[in-house]
Structure formats: C-alpha cells, structure tokens
Amino acid sequence: MYRNTWMEVNLDAIADNVRRIHDICGKRIIAVLKADAYGCGDNHVAKAVLEAGAEMIAVSSLDEAFMLRNEGYEGEILILGATDPEDASRMIEADISPAAYSMEWVRSVIEHKPAGLKVHLKVDTGMNRIGFKDIPSLQEAFSLLSENGCKMEGIFTHFYCADSSKELTQKQFDRFAAAVKALDYPFPWIHCDNSDATVFFKDDLSNACRLGVSMYGVSSYLSDLRHPIAMFSQVVMTKQVKAGETIGYSALYTAEKDEIIATIPIGYADGFIRANKGRCVWIAGQFAPVCGNVCMDQIMVRLEKDVPIGTPVEIFGPHIHLEKMAEELHTIPYEIICLISGRVTRTYIWHGKNLTEENARIIKSEVNSL
Ligand SMILES: *Cc1c(COP(=O)(O)O)cnc(C)c1O
Description:
By secondary structure, this protein is of the alpha/beta class. Helix content is 31%, strand content 24%.
C-alpha cells in the first residue's frame, strides 16, 4: 500500500453485530454478501459472519458465487438474482443454489438436466422485481421442478418497505404466508426478512433471515450496533492561498480571505463522488469543507488551522457517520460503500489484531518481487 487512502473493516464488530441480531430474531442467519460484501471484501466478511454463526451466504449472481468458491468457501450459497438456466450443470457441480423466479426460467432450466439442482422459489409479494406473482404459477413451477429432480430447498420473498412501513410489510408477509401454505411442503429454508424486518417483524412461519446492511451497523431500528467500517486518507500538502484565488477545475471556489488549503489523495475514481463538493471531511478536530470540484484522484479542503503532512483524514467513521454522509449526499449508505472502488486499500481488524501493517507489508513485498 503506497497510496494512503484506505477503508478499515473491523471484522470483530461485524461478527458482534451478527450475534446481536441473531439473539434478537432467534432464526438462522443468511449473510448477504453480494457486491463483494457491499464493498467490504466478501472473503474477509465471510470469515466473520461464519464465525458468528451464519449458516448460508447469499450473493447476487453466479459470478459472485464462484468468487466465494474460488476463495475456498465450501458452505451453502444462494443466488438471489437472475441466473442463466444454461448454467444448471455448473451450479449443480459447485453446489450453488439459484432462485427460481419465473415460468420462463423454470421451463428453460428443465431443458438443461436440472436433476440435483437445489432451488429456492422466489415469491413476488409486491416489489415487482423478480418472482412468481400468483399461486397457480408458483404451484406449476414447483411441480415442474420437482418432477425434473430439483431439490426444493427453500422459498422466499423480499420486503420493499421494511425500513418504514409495518403495514406494507405485513401485507407482503400475508401474501407470502398464503403462497407457502398453498404449496404445503416442508421447505428447509423459509425466509423473508431483510436487515430491518429481522429486528422489527416477528412471524412464526419463516425460519431464517437475510442480513445485509445491518452487519455494517446500519439499521432503521437498532441504534446500538457497532460501526465496523470507516474510510480514511492523509494530508499530502498544505498551502496558503490569497483572497481571490480560485481552487480546482472550473474555478468553482474562490477564497474569500487568505486561507489554508490542504490536498488529499482521494477522488471520484475512489468512489468519492463529485456531489461531495462542499461537504466536510474530518482532520485533526476540524470539519474541513471540500473546496471546488472533486478531481479524479484528489480533493482540496479548507482548514482553519494548518496541520502537518501525513495528518489522517476521516472521510466517514467515528466523527462523520456513514448514515450522515448518505443523508448529505441524498442517497443511502449502501450506495456509498458499494461505490468505494477497488483502488482503495481495505484493511482489516480481526480477532483484535489490526492487520493494516501486515496488509501493507504483503502488498509491498508482492510489488518488490515482480
Ligand atoms: C440485498 C438483499 C438483502 C439484504 O438487504 P439488507 O437491507 O442489506 O439487509 C436481502 N434480500 C434480498 C433479496 C436482497 O436483494
């Protein structure tokens, strides 16, 4: 690691959050590690969630499932999104379970020798994304798949307003319950709750919950989860500018008086999007606003008091909560962390040990041995 812009992921805190939520819901945990575990590194986060008792990992695509297999994960994997029925044999061989989500998918998969394929039926209870919308088609899919040797491993739905509406969630759940009852089959995995539903919605039908964002401390209902992720950089240069000088591309910022400007090596290619113009980062006790346009690789911020080169900069973390940053950017925490690009080094805390130096050493020695 030569460029000092990094994201810190505390795996112990993630494990604690999973245990905490497991205590609340009492059901089996499916850890949703799609999109490289929301940008945090799926193989690392997998270690933490498995240690905390998660019994299945869910991803969004076959590529993500294979990524976990290649990293050595041998447990249960569910693909929540679409898959190509032509890949049935690959999924059987790698013991990866797809979602069955439309009649087209079912008719196509039975043309591809699906015997032994473990499937989870997806019920669309109102989100209108993927899934069966009515019970007759769900029953037909069930029959076709079981007649062709598929293992009916699970049934699930997805709530679209669990963060805000108990009423809509209940309505979706009632539809799901009717579908499960109509099939009258002892599915090993029955799941409907995402992070928010897991902590506020109780039911006697489902036996597992799908946790995503709450593992990272983001929840609409729990305020005492740990905050496992933070993002940092370092000051690489500071300077005095005179009143009237402009800063950055398109001269969008003009110094009102003599000011101290610091340059920080983070930009939109790191996922620090241009909408951050005017927002603050945290430097040695000061909230420092981004002056002018965010560049691809760098930003300039205004300081009240000069600081030495190398002073750490918090992008989000203990002083600027991820949720606060999301609010200021008119988005959701999910989007911010998923957009942090591969160029940003991930460092990990695991079993109380900070792996930062170790990571840095590993990367350095790999570069030196090229
Ligand atoms: C992403 C996703 C989840 C996890 O949602 P969170 O809000 O992060 O807990 C669960 N289920 C499905 C189908 C998803 O796509």
